Amino acid sequence: MKEDSSNNDLNEDAFQNTAPAIIENKTIEVSIDSLTRVIDDYMFNVQGEENSQEIIDTYLEVLLNGNISKNTITKLATDIILSKDLATKKDNSLQLSLIYTALSQYFLNKNLESKAWAALSEAKYFLAYLFGLTDPINHKRAERAQKGGRKKAQNALDFEKLVIILLNKKRPRRGWRNAYDAANDIASELSIQANENNIPIPNDIKDLISKVINLIREDEEVIKVFDSPES
């Protein structure tokens, strides 16, 4: 399938990572349909109705009208991490799974198959996150992680996720030049958001920048985001 070279706001802003997902032995159309059925099963079990395709079609229309931006997606993802309300985490995870499924269909309709695969990968990620929140065992583990010796590990995870969000949000059009520039660029907003959400950080801005640089150089998930090219 030939890739459309057209340039629009959605291609530039609403989706950053254009690398294809791990290729399954399925077509993209079959994979979208399979994921939609999984979402339907979840919605039926939780809400008593199967209307995911209707919602996806609505999001697709909104995408075509240019009414979903990078900021919309970033805010939903940020609230998943920072919100203390489990219902908000669940609602946003489901919403992002539906949005990215619609975005996959959007890219497929424009013959941008690699972006369609990448969007579908994001949809699967947020659906898996939702299932983790829904699973009573995993939820109890998450609650225990907030206590005792696990609290430090949870703080580190929250800090890492916040760094990932800001690296995505502030990435220059040509990508990040080096770890030092990236750390300096996100440090101010990182400090504000971390303090607002009680995520422990170094008091000295230089120490904070150093901590971010170390994450960029050593943390696998942060490295992926830092190295991600312009969409």
Summarize the structure in short.
By secondary structure, this protein is mostly helical.
Explain what you see:
The structure is a single chain. The chain has 231 residues and is mainly α. It folds into two domains: 9-140, no CATH class; 148-226. Helices cover 73% and strands 0% of the residues. It is built from eleven helices and no strands. The chain has helices spanning 9-14, 28-47, 52-64, 70-82, 86-109, 113-134, 136-144, 150-170, 179-196, 205-218, 220-227. Helix 2 (28-47) runs parallel beside helix 6 and helix 10 (205-218) crosses helix 11 (220-227). The chain is globular, with a radius of gyration of 18 Å. The protein starts with 8 loop residues before the first helix and ends with a helix. Residues 1-25 have low confidence and may be disordered.
Give the topology, please.
Elements lengths: L8 H6 L13 H20 L4 H13 L5 H13 L3 H24 L3 H22 L1 H9 L5 H21 L8 H18 L8 H14 L1 H8 L4
Helix pairs in contact: 2-5, 2-6, 3-5, 4-5, 4-8, 5-6, 8-9, 8-11, 9-10, 10-11
Could you say how many structural domains there are in total? Answer: 2
| Share of helical residues | over 70%
The chain-level structural class is mainly alpha
The unreliable regions are: 1-25
Strand % is: under 5%
Strand segment count? 0
The oligomeric state is: single chain
Query: How far is the first residue's CA from the last residue's CA?
Result: 19 Å
Mean pLDDT: 79
